[in-house]
């Protein structure tokens, strides 16, 4: 029987997930289909999931915390951050996972060994990435526009700065998790700070995808090896797909066809 998967979000029309997963199912002849559900009320997630007869789903903004609450059991990294982006129907029980942070690790694998990472921003994505980096014994520095969001990161064990008190060090990787550059042409910090960061890092990554942000443009200009958020999106998608189909397909093949969906 054909399995049905979906992404829940508000808004959800912009999501690339249906295209990514359907491309895999279609090309690898897997009997499944993936759709999108515009869910306004996160507390209705569980009943909507079962009413639609779904085998699994992804959850995007703003329901990732509601998804954590809706699960009967949460596994892996999701238990640490309290945020779920993938749910699986396991014999009528909802099992929750988080593939966002591991997806990012997957995306930066080619950058090799990383000991020192600086995160620009202190929002939800920064939280997940900081916790994931620390889990691997990586030293984490967080630089954010405002001070008030930094206390969470201090407690985790990160070095924290706002723009006023920032002191530069050497980094293996600088990651932009702010939304600066998403809908505007702003840099994630004042230009002098960004310039010195770029002069002191080996690699650069941006969580934003679908456009080259001013931050990435500057990094390109300095000939630094960079990647935008597309590989992060791809990474979380591959890991979610493997959970959906219980590892029945080869990771290599999933990657090939999910990557092709980015050309569509
Ligand atoms: P949040 O709203 O939780 O956090 C936003 C952060 O950006 C805050 O730290 C905020 O600083 C900072 N910020 C916003 N505007 C500016 C600015 N003009 N200059 C400097 N800092 C700014 O967002 P999320 O963590 O949910 O998402 C962040 C980005 O990551 C988004 O662009 C999103 O699209 C992208 N993303 C990509 C994914 C992928 O798969 N590629 C997955 C998830 C997210 P302050 O505290 O001072 O307000």
Structure characterization notes:
With 264 residues, this protein is α/β, with parallel strands linked by helices. The chain folds into two domains: 3-98 and 231-261, Rossmann fold (3-Layer(aba) Sandwich), CATH 3.40.50; 102-228, Rossmann fold (3-Layer(aba) Sandwich). 36% of the residues lie in helices and 23% in strands. The chain has eleven helices and twelve strands. A six-stranded mixed sheet has the order 2-1-3-5-6-4, sandwiched between helices. α9 links the parallel β11 and β12 (225-227). α5 crosses α6 and α10 crosses α11 (251-260). It is globular and about 55 Å long. It starts with a strand and ends with a helix. The model has no long low-confidence stretch (mean pLDDT 96). Residues 100, 121-126, 144-146, 149, 177-180, 182, 186, 188, 207-209, 229, 232-233, 236 line the site of NADPH dihydro-nicotinamide-adenine-dinucleotide phosphate.
């Amino acid at each position: 029987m054909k399995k049905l998967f979906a992404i829940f979000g508000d808004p959800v029309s912009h999501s690339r997930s249906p295209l990514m997963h359907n491309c895999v199912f279609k090309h690898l002849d897997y009997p499944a289909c993936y759709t999108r559900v515009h869910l306004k009320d996160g507390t209705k997630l569980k009943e909507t999931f079962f009413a639609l007869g779904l085998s699994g789903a992804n959850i995007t903004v703003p329901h990732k915390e509601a998804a954590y609450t809706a699960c009967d059991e949460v596994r892996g990294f999701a238990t640490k951050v309290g945020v779920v982006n993938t749910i699986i129907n396991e014999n009528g029980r909802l099992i929750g996972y988080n593939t966002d942070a591991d997806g990012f690790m997957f995306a930066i694998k080619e950058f090799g060994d990383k000991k020192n990472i600086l995160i620009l921003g202190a929002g939800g994505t920064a939280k997940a990435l900081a916790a994931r980096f620390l889990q691997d014994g990586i030293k984490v520095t967080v630089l954010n526009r405002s001070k008030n969001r930094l206390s969470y990161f201090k407690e985790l064990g990160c070095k924290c700065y706002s723009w006023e008190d920032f002191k530069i060090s050497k980094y293996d990787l600088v990651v932009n998790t702010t939304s600066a550059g998403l809908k505007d042409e702003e840099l994630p910090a004042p230009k002098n700070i960004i310039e010195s960061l770029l002069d002191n890092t080996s690699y650069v990554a941006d969580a934003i995808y679908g456009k080259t942000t001013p931050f990435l443009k500057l990094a390109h200009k300095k000939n630094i090896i960079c990647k935008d958020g597309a590989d992060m999106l791809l990474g979380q998608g591959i890991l979610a797909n493997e959970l959906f189909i219980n590892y029945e397909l080869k990771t290599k093949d999933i990657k090939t066809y999910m990557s092709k969906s980015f050309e569509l």
